[in-house]
Every structure is written in C-alpha cells, then in structure tokens.
Amino acid sequence: MKMSTVVRKSASLITPFLVTYGLYLTIYGHLSPGGGFQGGVILAVAVILLITSHGYHLVRDTFRVNIVKLLESSSALFIIGVSIIGLFSGSFMYNFLRGGELGDLFSGGTLVLFNIAIGLKVGAAFTLLFYVLLRWTESD
Amino acid sequence: MRLKRVVALLLLMILGGMLVQVDHTQEYGGSYEHYVNNWEEVNIPNLVTAVLVDYRAYDTLGEATILFTAALGFYIILGGDKDEDVNCG
Known about the structure:
heterodimer, A: mainly alpha, 0% strand, B: 66% helix
C-alpha cells in the first residue's frame, strides 16, 4: 500500500542516512560499537521502511529480487572463501591479513572483510524474507 | 484456573528470587579469563568484535548459515509460483 505524501517524503529523507549509518556500523564494527549483524539489520530496515511507505511493487522493481538473492549467496560464499584461504597459511579461518597500527581501519585483517560480508548477507537475507512474505499480502 | 495462576505467580517469584541472588562478583576463570588476558593479540580495540569474529568465528559462520537456511526455507516454501507471478517478479 502507498502511504501519504508526508510519510513518503519523510521516508525518502531518512533512508539515505539509515544506509550510511548501517554501512558505518558494518565497516567500523571492529573499532567502535557495532558489527556486521547490527549494520546489516539497519540496511534491511532501510529497505523495509521504503516498502512500507512507497509500496511493495515500486521497491521490488528498484531492488530486484535476483540481485538480493545474488548478494546473499555471494556474501555467504565470500565468508567461506576467505576462511578457506586461511587454510593455506595455517588453519581454517586463520587471520592471514593481521597487522597494522592498532586503531586503523585495516588493523583487524580479515575481521573487516568478515564484518562487511556478514552485514551484506544479513541485510540481503532479511530483505529477501520480507519480499517472500509480503508478496502474499500485497494489495497495491 | 485460579490454582494455575497461583502456581505461576509462585514460580515467577521463585525465579525472581534466584535472579536477585545471582553472584556477579566472580568474573575470572574459563574462556573469559583467556579472552580478557589475551585480546591484545587480535589487534583491534573492540573486545566484543574480537570475541565474535576472531575467537568465535565459527559461531558467526554458523549464524550466517542459519540465516541462509532460513531465507532458503522461506523461499522454497512461500516463494513458488503464485498465478503468473513467477519467481517473485
């Protein structure tokens, strides 16, 4: 269902900040409070907010279901791939990029990659769940 | 019905009493001690992320797998053909 102009304008205004905040929480999850899961949920919430304000069809035509599915599966594969690369330098999930100054963005090594992949995966998975559930109740 | 409520209230009060009497002062021992003493080796300033993504990365991988399985199950059960709307769009 499509809501009123005020709601639509407010949602369009808030959504970019939500996406920025979710990406910040995801990328800087090892330096400040946050992490992949929380950032990913906020990314999904941005899409869900757009669904509730602009209607299911418009959002589904913008964020295609196939792209969401591809994003979810490829980030899951990325996590496992990075873990398997660690196998060559010691053990499964070995942090082979460790190093750097404490407090830098890339000081955590593979932790940053894990966080980003988990954030994308969680966001895509929740968006996909909402898409699949909402197509049975769509009314516009 | 009244007996059920009385029993439920009694159980709640017992549980509340147990929760109030929990001792929070004892904090060393087990994996906690290892994490607190050695988390500089992860080289990041956030202990929670250090535990979640470094020490217990298997746990995070399992969470991701659970989410993937949930999305897959939703898609298989509810995402099939609905009239001519194939594959969700």
